[in-house]
């Protein structure tokens, strides 16, 4: 391996670069120093804080009733606003030692105007109590402590362990990113003896986050392993679950934030941030599904991507020239492997200049996309935020020239252009908080849409800077931020959200009759409105594969339903067995894409020989026949916020056996999958929740509520269908749209009582017409009678004419 001049690839090169390896020193000594440095960096994060040393908010001296709730005035001049958004959604906003500011802005929130539901407030000398139909918020005046109770049972759901706190004395100033940009604020909640924690978006961690702590600071972390934190995304939303009762907390604060679920203390789960407001939303379930629906109402429902986004995708850093892209696609077709999308990584550009094509490698991109289009394949191009800063003034590059002229680029406080170093070398970043800059950026995508590019893949948007990945080099970079002119401490974590927004809205304007398809690496809460995601630069290892499941399910529990990971792993050399097992996870993930680093061993499905290729084909084909089912579960995510790729706890939250189960997953309500995540293993234990289950491959029936042991030779992923399900299955396809979904066969898996039901969602798969009711959702039911199974249509919704298609009903026995 070699390090190319100045670029941080392969990853070990960047690490050396950060340590500043002296050229003459002996390598082993350097290695030790390097390890030491990592240890020191790693330990500064959470343990440095003891929130009990912070200043506590003062006791309540008066209470004002407002239209939407109450304002509490505190002894230390702090103010707390409690707003009732819905019977199960309460906002808590605190301002320390000064009144709540009039300015109230968040990039994450999709819905600001809620119709206040009926509510009441009552006061005694000790407490103020707010009641809605579902929640009781009990506020103790002195000290100020907030409790959330179930309005019907009065059962405690969540309670402050400590009054809300702020770092008035600047005790934490030495550890915070930018002490000038804000003051540490924190909230502390009682840790339930049996409380489990879920969510927090993309973390290289297990499903149940109890007894762990995390930091949010979007970071480019190639080759991350379990425990690496932070990585690319910030979703400051989590759910607590105790005795089957769930609540959610969305701490809407984009500064570097901290979440500790009983790691530093046995008493508390706390969260805090290095600035901004203590501003959180409390969601009450008790069901997780209901919380996810509300979270989607608040931060945005994922729009449907085009149906072909559920197709199989192939990528590589990088396929070029155009003839090689054609070769890849031809190989797929020749080998009878389904394929919908091929990705062009950074080498398609002219010297990494975004919005350009390299003329030698891709002389006629339109001809290429037309040709591939005739084979049923779409092209997605990568777009990074770095715009090349021309090395000499005479170089003309439209993206730079226009952006400079319009003053859309980020600048330091002293007015200098901020010049990070990324793939193009010295570059500039756009200030996406400027509405006109977002519009301009979106419009720049015309070069892609005109050339038939079907989707955009945003990378490096943490934003990554080879000069310094910690953000220190960007400390004094100012963003417009709706007039606040705030700095990096506040804007880093929302950079990707706004870039994705600019891209999505641009694609909407450029192709109004098509659904945009955007993929992102970094994110902040609300990202689901604009982009799908993948989990960045994983390793081609078994450990990395095992992380797929808790990462996908946690993302799903954090409002990001469309997720996936580089199949086979990104960095290093995989093998046929790992690749097959990786497909056995991802063939049911929303984003199903094989991708590999520039210096990794090739890993397209055929690269390890026919034996493995045949198994991969089996799973890709199965994915395509299951598309009617997958699309139906994806639409459910759009509508209800409940993701397709689920941890078992989401469907069985009363069953404690599911609370930390993260080597199995479910797709929708009906399919349970228990992949093999270790080499040379062909047998495993599978937990089946209570009820009747059918082995997908053999139709053998099991009664759940127990562990079973199943065989899983390399060509088998253990998979079970819930008794009571009807699974819609379509014809075998090489790509989406090759033929209509006709016939559609409903495989009926009756439950113990002989009943089953299922749903089929259909629309044109391409246009935004579904948003105005042009879809068809059909609910079917089946019942075993004396003369066999009887099926009926329970309900039909929507105005879409799905055309004549044949439905077959097959009872699985
Ligand atoms: O510094 O575009 O995560 O998928 O292939 C590496 C090159 C930049 C990181 C992405 C990866 C992509 C690669 N990129």
Précis, in short:
The protein has 813 residues and is α+β, with helices and mostly antiparallel strands. The protein is globular. Bound molecules: ligand MIG.
What do you see in this structure?
With 813 residues, the protein is α+β, with helices and mostly antiparallel strands. 20% of the residues lie in helices and 28% in strands. The protein is built from 15 helices and 48 strands. α12 (576-586) runs parallel beside α13 (610-625). It starts with 10 loop residues before the first helix and ends with a strand. Bound molecules: ligand MIG. Ligand MIG is lined by residues 9, 317, 345-346, 382, 459-460, 521, 536-537, 595.
Give the helices and strands, then pairings.
Elements: H1 11-19, H2 27-43, E1 55-56, E2 60-65, E3 69-74, E4 79-86, E5 89-95, E6 120-123, E7 127-131, E8 135-140, E9 145-150, E10 156-166, E11 185-190, E12 196-199, E13 213-216, E14 233-234, E15 237-242, E16 245-251, E17 257-261, E18 268-273, E19 278-284, H3 288-299, E20 313-314, H4 322-334, E21 341-344, H5 365-374, E22 378-383, E23 387-388, H6 398-405, E24 411-412, E25 421-422, E26 425-428, H7 435-443, H8 446-450, E27 455-458, E28 477-479, E29 486-487, H9 488-491, H10 495-510, E30 518-520, E31 523-524, E32 532-533, H11 542-556, E33 566-567, H12 576-586, E34 593-594, H13 610-625, H14 627-640, E35 645-646, H15 648-651, E36 665-667, E37 671-673, E38 683-688, E39 692-695, E40 701-703, E41 706-711, E42 719-722, E43 725-729, E44 744-749, E45 755-762, E46 776-785, E47 788-797, E48 807-811
Parallel strand pairs: 14-31, 20-21, 20-34, 21-22, 22-27, 27-30, 30-32, 33-34, 44-48
Antiparallel strand pairs: 1-10, 2-3, 3-4, 4-5, 5-19, 6-7, 7-8, 8-9, 9-10, 10-11, 11-18, 12-15, 13-17, 15-16, 16-19, 17-18, 23-26, 24-28, 25-26, 28-29, 35-36, 36-37, 37-42, 38-41, 39-40, 39-42, 43-44, 45-46, 46-47
This protein binds ligand MIG.
